[in-house]
Amino acid sequence: MAELVVFAVFAAVALAGAFVMLSARNPVYSAIGLLASMFSIAVFYVLLDAHFIAAIQVIIYAGAVMTLFLFVIMMIGVDRREDTTEPIPFQRPIGIVLALALGVLVVAAGSKAWFTGSGRFGSVDLVGTIGVVADELFGTWVLPFLGTTLLLTIAALATVALGRYDVAATEGEEGP
Amino acid sequence: MLNAYFGDYITVAVFMAVGALLVAGAIFASSLIAPRRPGGFKEVVYESGIEPIGGGWNQSHIRYYVFALLFLIFDVEAIFMFPWAIRLDFFAEAGLGITVLVEMIVFVVVLVLGLLYALAKGVLRWE
Amino acid sequence: MTGVLLAAVKVAVAFGFLMGTVIVLVWAERRIVAFMQNRHGPNRAGPAGILQTAADGLKLFFKESMTPRKAEFALYIAAPVLAVVPALLVFAVIPVGAPITIGGVTYTLQVTDLDVGVLYVLAVSSLGVYAVTLAGWSSGSKYPLLGSVRAAAQMISYEAALGLALVPVIMFTGTTSLAEIVEAQGGTFGGGLPAWNLVLVPSFVIFLIAGFAETNRAPFDLVEAEQEIVGGYHTEYSGMRFAFFFLAEYINVFNMAALTTVFFLGGWHGPRFGPPAVEMALPVVWFLAKTWAIVFLFIWVRATLPRVRYDQLMAFGWKRLIPVSLVWIFLSMVAIGVRRFGLPWA
């Protein structure tokens, strides 16, 4: 019962957050909406007894990724008026059709893959949620894990490429 | 069904809610009691005593973005290390100790190479 | 039902404890810094001025809270709440004493123990960045925006180091629950030194330095570098709204000291003796003594070290602290490997 109430409340928060993210004129409010959505998803993980994943959800998504987004917003400058003219004439109808198609897909996939009760790790000792993740990650999925390293390093290299602003060109122009 | 772990998080949620309500309540109560006479120079933002020039929202430098990206990378890295660190003993008992150790050493070394590259290219220099 | 009641009592006690702590902490800081600088410090309100913080808080309560004309009001007013809540949440998982048994029932002196405690602490403190960013942005003023972007970049840079410093601790204790980390530090190394995680000296030093930066304390208090950016992200805040930023800052200082105690100084462990009542209270005394020793270190450093420059701050974080913590993790891995599997060539 309590779980159902918590789920209902945070499902509403997640949806409202997503709506705010899409509809807010000001990018900072969009970011806040996304933050609320991501935090609600962390609550869902707690409800599913996936505490480790919940913690990661907050650390990585609500923490690091959202900070990154806020920095991007600050970098672009928030006081710019946004250009709200729609360049593609049938943008809205196309969008609605695509959204409906996506909805049908989700429902179809959900009705096929829907299952209740415990999955593979059924009655796992809850103290070991981190342990289970570790066993799978470092025992079974070694290569994908090491692939992540490469992915992270590539991200670091891309950061370097992005960050190589020309120092001489910005000389005298004091950034905050 | 309400298990013990879920209860722990409920306590956290209650703690959070009580905290937020106390702070919001205190701010609200203060706004009821404290004088409020808006207008005039009070509402002008501080800019070293002169009248502010232009808007308050200016663009920030791209280097902040670079640091945020690097932070994301190292945060993900640290997250990978936590389950590994916890499970070290179990892997050792299963005879997988060396394998798991080598896995993580490869992981860290590759990432250190990334950081070294960033250092060598001077991205982390703050001009 | 008793569980709910117990949780309610714990929440109430925790809030009371934190408020009392902050009142003493602010006073202690002002007095200690004053003595170190050959001044008197606040000494009028109450005995030795101990009521000064309460008086200041009360004064701020009756002060007008001004709102800049250009402020984004919703976020502007939400920021102080967002600053205090993460600070409170970190405290929720800190074990302040050994579990006590009254009438056959054992109570833990911790609001709640989570099995992902360490990750929870990192998660909640990463949310602290929002208060800073939003406060600075929503003020619609230049200095706060500057201060907030700086503060956010500083906090995330040192948060990475903070997380990495804890990896050896977890390798060593094999758990992420704060209560169990303290538990694992009981006993002694071969009957001599207490078995604290302090043996992981580099981790301890990195954690402490990153802690100074994470709480925006001297010598890393660039957020509030008065000479360059005035008061930092809360320049445009006044009255009770400002008071809560102040409160959050000091709760964070206490939390960071308490976490250092939990992770490295054996938490509530210490000699236990005497009649049952005394024996039961002693762990809390040890915990508080260790935590306040670290708090004193925070204050001492503030009174002693000059503020670093921003480029020095970022360079120190990324070129020293993070590489050193990675090397240290690598060394601990090798050490654990050698301890467990022997030398590869032997």
Which labels suit this protein?
B: 127 residues, mainly alpha, 3 helices, 68% helix, 0% strand, flat, C: mainly alpha, 11 helices
Topology:
The complex is a heterotrimer of chains A (about 180), B (about 130) and C (about 350).
Chain A: H1 2-23, H2 27-47, H3 51-76, H4 91-113, H5 129-140, H6 142-163
Chain B: H1 4-33, H2 62-93, H3 97-120
Helix pairs in contact in B: 2-3
Chain C: H1 2-36, H2 52-61, H3 73-91, E1 97-102, E2 105-109, H4 117-138, H5 142-173, H6 178-183, H7 201-214, H8 226-229, H9 239-264, H10 276-304, H11 310-341
Antiparallel strand pairs in C: 1-2
Helix pairs in contact in C: 1-9, 1-10, 2-9, 3-4, 3-9, 4-5, 5-7, 5-11, 7-9, 7-11, 9-10
Distance between the termini of chain A: 51 Å
Number of helices of chain A: 6
Overall mean pLDDT score of chain A? 79
Helix and strand run of chain A: HHHHHH
List how many beta strands of chain B DSSP finds. 0
Number of E-state strands of chain A: 0
Name the beta content range of chain B.
under 5%
What this model shows, in words?
The complex is a heterotrimer of chains A (176), B (127) and C (346). Chain A has helices at 2-23, 27-47, 51-76, 91-113, 129-140, 142-163. Chain A is mostly helical and 176 residues long. Among the domains of chain A are: 1-80, Four Helix Bundle (Hemerythrin (Met), subunit A); 126-165. The longest helix of chain A is centred in the middle third of the chain and has 26 residues, at 51-76. The termini of chain A are far apart. Chain B is flat, with a radius of gyration of 26 Å. Chain B is mostly helical and 127 residues long. Chain B has a single domain, classed as Methane Monooxygenase Hydroxylase, Chain G, domain 1. The model of chain B has no long low-confidence stretch (mean pLDDT 77). The termini of chain B are far apart. In chain C, 54% of the residues are buried. The radius of gyration of chain C is 21 Å and the shape is globular. The longest helix of chain C has 35 residues, at 2-36. The interface between A and B is large, with 52 and 54 residues.
